[in-house]
């Protein structure tokens, strides 16, 4: 059907500024097809809303309703559309996290098809500024549960909990919150049920159909897909249509042909300035499997790393504080981040300096390829550093690019899936770039943190599927109106599903350096439009993925070239260097000498102290490390204040300009300034975990380390310096 | 005449700071290079605009000049900051020697010296040694490479090995500011002639060689006399002292009670001077408990002193016990007194062998003793030595955090901050008076008391307030700067040297990181203080005590660092400062929130310098605001002056309004 050579070119392609990597693993397609089959069969046998063959609820919703007293009913959280309570228990004690004294609040613990929820008996406290509309601070979406521990911190695994329940249950969440509940005050029946229910729904394998998204979407009048609804607005490019790809190629002046015959998930833009006529001699391949850690390594490392932040005990926290730096080194997480960034810089170097196209490969082609290729684009193309650009990038490289979100986050708790925080790794790398070159990014750190949390909220289509084909077939199958349009689920980019406008303000970086205006207009003309998206004949882009299509191409290429590390052989025989890092180093240094352009190429510094821990994400829930009255928010509020003043002044100027005769004395700049100053001063009452923790927990008490190192350092001290007197006379050399 | 020179000098400064930023921007990648090429156009312009006669000008201190980058780590290498004026001068005539300060004189000059830069490689150029600085310039590179450092920074000069095969001799310079320099030059053919490095050895250590420290020669006149920044009476008055419980005593007016204490002391009202003397007999070096700070509301106090002379036999002093009881009674809010002993308990106990020790809770009823486990000056010195190994010249990438941990530097910082935090917490939350001491009460005690005061009192977080704090808690209370730093002393192995003050500044920096809007000063301010801690240009950090300073007539014979700093406060101002006034800062002392001060310890490494200082954005924003404010005011004036008439085109039209994110200028 296809001319082999044409295809080859399409695959190899060409990557500045869009690096598209489509090396699709055959095994992945198999698995996703299997899932589809599984789904279909399960649908066939079960009707209605309740039980499916692979899923047995311990308590049916009806049971709960009959059991419940009216008073207790009020304790329910506001259920979302399609949310059903499975079981609940009252007089559950939730320990206050920052307290060793076993104090806490009593309330009702519920498990629904969406979340584990604790509803306090006490009056609800003040509203949070940064409230998530889908779940509150005492709610844990089921997919967000990481681990559950019982008494004596015994790890609970599913399946083995018949008739037993621990008196204390600790839940570690994937967004790093830690909840501790005591079940010993509840009725035994209730306690047993809630414990078993939570374990069952959070830990045991389930079918995709049980994910909340399906029941949510069936029951919401969600107004069609995001893209359709907001056609008028500027928006995220979804890369689910040929238009999107074509437009993006136009934007980047690529001159590749979009291959739409195959499916909707590939294209190959080409760099206009590409040197070579013969692609084979201008392509450098990077086999990431050779140089970067595997997805298993990533998971292992992250599991060690996250332990430093899942704090349920203050004493332990301060104990671990002493060895903090070496523990950081030992878990290797920051090193993996550095390696990914370094690989991306290497690719950028090839593209920029050597004008070589780069083909990034790995087995499967949708994990580290996604990380590296999106990082490369982020470094090269300022468009991707805008909020919408970034979302489009994720959409292009990750969603359309076929990153197996479902398997990697393992929402279904299937044993045979490789769970790995690859997307989080990418966000980590982005954060590193962002903290080194703040003004280059339109989005804020808070945005990245929220995005990393959203992966575990099983509502958004963005993160629920393994690839586009998977998504399309499932949504189609799930649609209640089978003959009509597929099920409409929100994408994560529709932030209004989670946050109101005010909260969304925190997603933007007030110090972002916007591109000078004349360029903006140019940019606009390149922005893709979404006019005819749905009117396209479906056959053009909705055909199911062909098995092994790209895999074959990669194999082909390998065969032709006959070597594993093509780069060495092809690029320059002399560059037989395992010392890639030194060339990266030089490349960085050369870049560093040039004046910084926030709208040009950005490279990260990779030296030891430059790769840091993403404080906001990892430390936000830990009471002891909240800087009260400090942290980035102190800076943020001051900057906002100044910006407010600048705007106000500008307004005044405008007003004066227009109506010089009107009463100009009404609004002096001072008046506004005063108000703004109060705002800045109120940052005294915020903490470094803003906006994630309310100021209600404000206690004007410092966290005093519970264990100061006594003799720790004296060991290994040469010449017993520690025993000497302060005044260094010879007599003091005891 | 003098006046005129100063005036025009300021004009120069004004212009040069504008261009300085540009220079920096282009020079970042090359360590120690003052970029001359880029600056050329601008600085010559600035000189012509300023209309000043350069040759009559007194040049500004080496590190001290400008660079308008506010408080960012990095880019503060003094070399980079350069002196705009000197740069301009050098540019004009491409001289290979530095622009000299008043009274600075060239001691020796050698051509064809090689500087072996760890980042760039070997550079051949001319080396000049004056009585103040070492100046190396390599003209082969474009832009020219300049190394310019005060001799005070040099801690040791060593000849490395014999003559090499190529007939070169090599010299190594270890510096107090976390770097080492290496030079080489041809073996002298005339064996009678001294190598420039022998001259250097002489000039770098004036104290050891019977020469004068340059601070005593430097005669720059600044608009303000920095020695007047701190007035003990005024500072105590600010705190509301004297009051009904506390009095200011003159008992130490001639340093007879205690020769390492200041002349002005605050003690409880009902303890007469005679009793003070008896208390002094029981405290090491006569350093009796005196008030450092009083809480404006609760009247809880921070008291500092030295260890009690308890000894092995557990000696007691009724006077000392009564004295501490009186201190407790002066604060009606609490019936307790906390005594913070900065040392590890083992060391405190070991001190009994030498007559010292700590307060027993038997003898001091109502007092609670807490050990803060901070190690002694030797441990700190060793830790800094290790740190230097880890960060200079290159950072090993793979095990950075483990290597950092092995230096224990941040652990020490954590312990000091944690100690100060506990003190501040007791005073603020517990409304309890605290007594702080270590052995002699001039190292760890100074660190703890002054840090607690920074946390408790917003005044000390201002530029001038911080100067007062240093003058008070460090200089007047006898932190032994001369011994700890070893100004002009060649004995680099002296066991009295220790980075105690550096640690304190590091702790303050950690706090500025955690509370970015709570400090009026920026990072550059702290780095400038540290640079001049060693530079021997100003008299501020000379001598060991107030008594010695008076005796040496430092205020008369030398210039204070504060005179220089206060002559251009805008350089040192944090653009994001929000005056929190009475807000108390409790920093988080977890390792998770402490970090190595890259902008100081790793500033020589060009890779670690950001291309654009973070605060540049804020400065631009502030400039934008100032510009708009000016325009609004102009317009308003215009409106009031003019009768109601047609619209003016001068004001921006609505289309020109900017968005909040548009911060480019």
From TrEMBL, chain A:
GO terms for cellular component: membrane; sarcomere; sarcoplasmic reticulum. It comes from the Eukaryota. It holds the Pfam family 3-PAP. One of its GO terms (biological process) is phosphatidylinositol dephosphorylation. Its main location: cytoplasm. Keywords: Cytoplasm, Sarcoplasmic reticulum, Signal. Residues 83-618 form the Myotubularin phosphatase domain. PANTHER family: MYOTUBULARIN-RELATED, MYOTUBULARIN-RELATED PROTEIN 12. This is Myotubularin-related protein 12.
TrEMBL record, chain B:
This is Phosphatidylinositol-3,5-bisphosphate 3-phosphatase MTMR2. The active site is at 438 (phosphocysteine intermediate). It catalyses: 1,2-dioctanoyl-sn-glycero-3-phospho-(1D-myo-inositol-3,5-bisphosphate) + H2O = 1,2-dioctanoyl-sn-glycero-3-phospho-(1D-myo-inositol-5-phosphate) + phosphate; 1,2-dioctanoyl-sn-glycero-3-phospho-(1-D-myo-inositol-3-phosphate) + H2O = 1,2-dioctanoyl-sn-glycero-3-phospho-(1D-myo-inositol) + phosphate; a 1,2-diacyl-sn-glycero-3-phospho-(1D-myo-inositol-3-phosphate) + H2O = a 1,2-diacyl-sn-glycero-3-phospho-(1D-myo-inositol) + phosphate; a 1,2-diacyl-sn-glycero-3-phospho-(1D-myo-inositol-3,5-bisphosphate) + H2O = a 1,2-diacyl-sn-glycero-3-phospho-(1D-myo-inositol-5-phosphate) + phosphate. Its main location: cytoplasm. Its EC number is 3.1.3.95. The keyword Amino-acid biosynthesis does not apply. It is found in: Cytoplasm; Early endosome membrane. The lineage of its organism: Eukaryota, Metazoa, Chordata, Craniata, Vertebrata. The keyword Membrane applies. It is a peripheral membrane protein. Regulates the level of these phosphoinositides critical for various biological processes including autophagy initiation and autophagosome maturation. It comes from Oncorhynchus tshawytscha. One of its GO terms (molecular function) is phosphatidylinositol-3,5-bisphosphate 3-phosphatase activity. It comes from the Eukaryota. The gene is MTMR2. Substrate binds at residues 351-354, 376-377, 438-444. GO terms for cellular component: early endosome membrane. Keywords: Coiled coil, Cytoplasm, Endosome, Hydrolase, Lipid metabolism, Membrane. Residues 642-657 have a biased composition (Low complexity). InterPro entries: GRAM, Myotubularin, Myotubularin-like_Pase_dom, PH-like_dom_sf, Prot-tyrosine_phosphatase-like, Tyr_Pase_AS, Tyr_Pase_cat, Tyr_Pase_dom. Residues 41-60, 635-665 are annotated as: Disordered. Residues 226-601 form the Myotubularin phosphatase domain. It is an enzyme of class 3 (hydrolase). Belongs to the protein-tyrosine phosphatase family. Non-receptor class myotubularin subfamily. Residues 407-454 form the Tyrosine specific protein phosphatases domain. PANTHER family: MYOTUBULARIN-RELATED (PTHR10807), MYOTUBULARIN-RELATED PROTEIN 2 (PTHR10807:SF42). GO terms for biological process: phosphatidylinositol dephosphorylation. SMART domains: GRAM (SM00568), PTPc_motif (SM00404).
């Amino acid at each position: 059907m296809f001319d082999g050579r044409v295809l080859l070119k399409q695959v190899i392609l060409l990557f500045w500024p869009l690096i598209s990597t489509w090396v699709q693993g055959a095994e992945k397609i198999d698995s996703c097809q299997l899932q589809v089959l599984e789904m279909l069969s399960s649908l066939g046998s079960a009707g209605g809303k309740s039980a499916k063959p692979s899923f047995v609820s311990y308590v049916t919703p009806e049971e709960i309703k009959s059991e419940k007293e009216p008073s207790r009913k009020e304790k329910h959280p506001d259920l979302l559309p399609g949310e059903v309570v499975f079981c609940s228990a009252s007089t559950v004690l939730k320990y206050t996290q920052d307290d060793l004294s076993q104090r806490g609040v009593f309330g009702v613990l519920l498990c629904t098809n969406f979340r584990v929820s604790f509803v306090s008996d006490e009056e609800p406290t003040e509203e949070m500024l940064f409230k998530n509309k889908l779940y509150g601070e005492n709610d844990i979406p089921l997919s967000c549960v990481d681990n559950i521990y019982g008494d004596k911190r015994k790890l609970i695994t599913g399946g083995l909990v018949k008739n037993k329940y621990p008196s204390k249950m600790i839940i570690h969440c994937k967004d790093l919150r830690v909840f501790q509940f005591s079940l010993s005050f509840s009725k035994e029946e209730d306690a047993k049920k809630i414990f078993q229910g939570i374990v069952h729904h959070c830990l045991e394998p389930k079918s995709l159909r049980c994910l909340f998204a399906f029941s949510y979407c069936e029951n919401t009048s969600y107004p069609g897909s995001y893209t359709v609804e907001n056609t008028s607005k500027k928006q995220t490019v979804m890369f689910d249509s040929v238009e999107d790809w074509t437009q993006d190629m136009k934007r980047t002046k690529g001159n590749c042909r979009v291959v739409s015959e195959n499916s909707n998930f590939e294209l190959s833009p080409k760099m206009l300035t590409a040197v070579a006529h013969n692609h084979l001699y201008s392509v450098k391949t990077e086999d990431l499997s050779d140089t970067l850690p595997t997805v298993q390594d990533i998971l292992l490392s992250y599991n060690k790393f996250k332990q430093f932040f899942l704090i349920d005990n203050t004493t332990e926290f301060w104990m671990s504080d002493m060895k903090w730096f070496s523990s950081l080194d030992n878990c290797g997480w920051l090193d993996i981040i550095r390696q990914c960034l370094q690989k991306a810089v290497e690719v950028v170097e090839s593209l920029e300096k050597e004008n070589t196209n780069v083909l990034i490969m790995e087995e499967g082609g949708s994990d580290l390829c996604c990380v590296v290729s999106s990082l490369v684009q982020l470094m090269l193309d300022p468009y991707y550093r805008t909020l919408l650009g970034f979302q489009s990038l994720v959409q292009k490289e990750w969603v359309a690019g076929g990153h197996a979100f479902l398997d990697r986050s393992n929402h279904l708790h299937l044993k045979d899936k490789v769970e790995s925080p690859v997307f989080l790794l990418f966000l980590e790398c982005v954060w590193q770039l962002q903290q080194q070159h703040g003004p280059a990014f339109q989005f804020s750190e808070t945005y990245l943190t929220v995005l990393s949390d959203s992966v575990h909220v099983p509502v958004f289509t963005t993160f629920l599927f393994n690839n586009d084909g998977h998504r399309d077939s499932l949504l189609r199958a799930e649609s209640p109106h089978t003959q009509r349009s597929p099920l409409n689920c929100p994408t994560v980019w529709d932030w209004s599903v989670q946050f109101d406008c005010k909260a969304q303000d925190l997603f933007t970086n007030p110090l972002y350096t916007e591109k000078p205006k004349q360029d903006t207009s140019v940019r606009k003309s390149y922005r893709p439009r979404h006019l005819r998206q749905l009117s396209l004949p479906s056959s053009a882009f909705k055909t199911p993925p062909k098995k092994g299509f790209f895999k074959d191409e990669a194999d082909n290429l390998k065969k032709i070239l006959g070597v594993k590390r093509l780069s060495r052989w092809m690029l320059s025989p002399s560059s037989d260097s395992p010392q890639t890092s030194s060339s990266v180093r030089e490349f960085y240094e050369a870049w560093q000498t040039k004046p910084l352009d926030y709208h040009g190429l950005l490279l990260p510094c990779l030296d030891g102290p430059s790769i840091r821990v993403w404080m906001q994400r990892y430390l936000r829930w830990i009471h002891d490390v909240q800087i009260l009255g400090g942290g980035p928010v102190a800076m943020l509020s001051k900057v906002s204040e100044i910006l407010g003043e600048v705007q106000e002044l500008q307004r005044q100027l405008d007003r004066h300009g227009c109506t010089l005769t009107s009463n100009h004395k009404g609004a002096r700049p001072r008046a506004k300034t005063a108000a703004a100053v109060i705002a800045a001063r109120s940052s005294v009452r915020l903490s470094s975990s803003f906006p994630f923790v309310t100021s209600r927990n404000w206690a004007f008490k410092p966290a005093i380390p519970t264990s100061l190192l006594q003799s720790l350092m004296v060991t290994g001290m040469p010449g017993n310096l520690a025993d000497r007197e302060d005044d260094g006379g010879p007599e003091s050399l005891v | 005449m003098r006046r005129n020179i100063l005036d025009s000098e300021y004009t120069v400064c004004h212009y040069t700071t504008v261009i300085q930023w540009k220079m920096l921007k282009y020079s970042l990648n090359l360590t120690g290079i003052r970029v001359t090429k880029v600056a050329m156009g601008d600085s010559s312009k600035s000189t012509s605009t300023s209309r000043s006669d350069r040759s009559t000008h007194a040049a500004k201190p080496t590190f001290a000049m400008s660079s308008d980058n506010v408080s960012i780590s990095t880019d503060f290498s003094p070399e980079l900051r350069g002196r705009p004026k000197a740069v301009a001068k050098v540019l004009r005539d491409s001289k290979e020697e530095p622009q000299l300060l008043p009274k600075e004189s060239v001691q020796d000059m050698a051509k064809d010296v090689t500087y072996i830069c760890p980042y760039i490689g070997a550079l051949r150029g001319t080396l000049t040694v004056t009585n103040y600085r070492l100046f190396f310039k390599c003209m082969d590179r474009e832009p020219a490479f300049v190394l310019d450092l005060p001799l005070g920074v040099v801690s040791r000069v060593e000849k490395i090995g014999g003559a090499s095969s190529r007939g070169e001799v090599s010299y190594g310079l270890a510096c107090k500011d976390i770097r080492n320099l290496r030079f080489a030059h041809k073996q002298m053919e005339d064996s009678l002639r001294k190598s420039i490095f022998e001259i250097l050895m002489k000039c770098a250590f004036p104290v050891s060689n019977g020469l004068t420290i340059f601070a005593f020669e430097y005669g720059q006149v600044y608009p303000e006399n920095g020695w007047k920044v701190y007035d003990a009476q005024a500072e105590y008055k600010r705190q509301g002292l004297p009051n009904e419980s506390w009095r200011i005593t003159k008992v130490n007016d001639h340093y007879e009670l205690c020769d390492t204490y200041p002349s002005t002391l605050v003690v409880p009202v009902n303890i007469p001077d005679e009793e003070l003397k008896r208390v002094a007999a029981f405290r090491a070096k006569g350093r009796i408990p005196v008030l450092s700070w009083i809480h404006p509301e609760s009247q809880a106090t921070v008291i500092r002193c030295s260890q009690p002379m308890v000894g092995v036999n557990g000696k007691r002093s009724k006077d000392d016990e009564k004295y501490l009881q009186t201190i407790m009674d002066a604060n009606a809010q609490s019936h307790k007194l906390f005594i913070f002993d900065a040392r590890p308990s083992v060391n405190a106990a070991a001190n009994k062998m030498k007559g010292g020790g700590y307060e027993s809770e038997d003898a001091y009823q109502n007092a609670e003793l807490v050990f803060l486990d901070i190690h002694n000056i030797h441990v700190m010195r060793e830790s800094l030595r290790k740190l230097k190994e880890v960060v200079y010249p290159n950072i090993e990438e793979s095990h950075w955090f483990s290597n950092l941990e092995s230096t224990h530097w941040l652990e020490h910082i954590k312990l000091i901050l944690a100690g100060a935090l506990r003190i501040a917490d007791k005073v603020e939350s517990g409304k309890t008076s605290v007594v702080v001491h270590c052995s002699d009460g001039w190292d760890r005690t100074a660190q703890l008391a002054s840090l607690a005061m920074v946390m408790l009192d917003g005044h000390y977080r201002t530029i001038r307030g911080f100067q007062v704090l240093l003058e008070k808690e460090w200089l007047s209370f006898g932190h032994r700067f001369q011994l700890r730093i070893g100004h002009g002393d060649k004995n680099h192995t002296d066991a009295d040297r220790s980075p105690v003050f550096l640690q304190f500044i590091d702790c303050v920096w950690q706090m500025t990181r955690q509370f970015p809007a709570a400090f009026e000063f920026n990072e550059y301010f702290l780095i400038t203080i540290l640079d001049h801690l060693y530079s021997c240009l100003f008299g501020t950090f000379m001598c060991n005590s107030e008594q010695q300073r008076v005796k040496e007539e430092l205020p008369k014979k030398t210039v204070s660092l504060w005179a220089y700093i206060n002559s251009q406060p805008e350089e040192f101002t944090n653009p994001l400062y929000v005056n929190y006034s009475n807000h108390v800062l409790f920093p988080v002392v977890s390792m998770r929130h402490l970090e190595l001060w890259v902008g100081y310890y790793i500033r020589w490494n060009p890779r670690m310098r950001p291309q654009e200082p973070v605060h540049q954005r804020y400065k631009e924003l502030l400039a934008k605001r100032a510009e708009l404010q000016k325009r609004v005011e102009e317009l308003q004036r215009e409106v009031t002056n003019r009768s109601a008439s047609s619209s003016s085109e001068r004001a921006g039209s609505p289309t020109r309004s900017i968005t909040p994110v548009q911060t480019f200028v």
